[in-house]
């Protein structure tokens, strides 16, 4: 039927609301950045996510990025607890000064992740602009992110099973030369390297991961008498439905994961995808124990 209504898409079935939470880094300055986005659906489903990507924190705050991340985690946990307890943020008290709750916005989309994408797109320009302004020629930052990723996994291991910490960053000789090759985690029966897929630095991230896969392959084919039985590449990456990622970024991330998977499978190296350091650490312990 050729009516005016048929020219427009139908209203999405899922509805709810979103709110952004802002941080004033210098209290009293009036400058605010969106650090958290929350969404509550009519079905009572709720989600609280970080609105500014971790790699951007590294760029903005350098050595202070970890402290900023800890503050964001504090706010996220507080807001999440409030929603789970009371179903709303109406009476929420921020955990420290300089944190402000934004206005509630009614929204509709396919699901709660879609509502969160709206929240990010409308309130968190730093997150969306960071992905659109990709810089693939910078190799140093992905190396730094990867080192931070490895350190975070080691920190989680120390909390869960401290005796495994000594197996990190092992350097061994695998050829006739005197050159030592470094591995992220190594025991007599198990070895893994760690990689991090940074959405705004995928080309450089991929190059780093290829090198680590090659090191695993070299150990597997070496003439060492005692070699691990299980070889893995553990990668840290956002979920494909992460609301802070644009559709373009998700497509490129999926293509990159597919390429890494093909490279790993060709050498019988397991590719393990993890969302955070704790998940990676728990997997390590389950394999190495």
TL;DR?
With 289 residues, this protein is of the alpha+beta class.
Low-confidence stretches: 129-137
Helix-strand sequence: EEEHHEEHHHEEEHEHEH
What's the number of helices?
A: 8
Instruction: Report helical residue fraction.
Output: 40-55%
User: Cα distance, first to last residue?
Assistant: 65 Å
Question: Which overall shape is indicated by the principal axes computed on the Cα atoms?
Answer: elongated
The third-level CATH topology of the largest domain is Rossmann fold
Largest sheet at a glance? 5 strands, antiparallel
Number of strands: 10
Spatial extent as radius of gyration: 22 Å
CATH class annotation of the largest domain: Alpha Beta
Structural class: alpha+beta
CATH architectural group of the largest domain: 3-Layer(aba) Sandwich
Mean pLDDT: 86
Q: So what's the oligomer here?
A: single chain
Q: Strand share of the residues?
A: 15-25%
Count of structural domains? 2
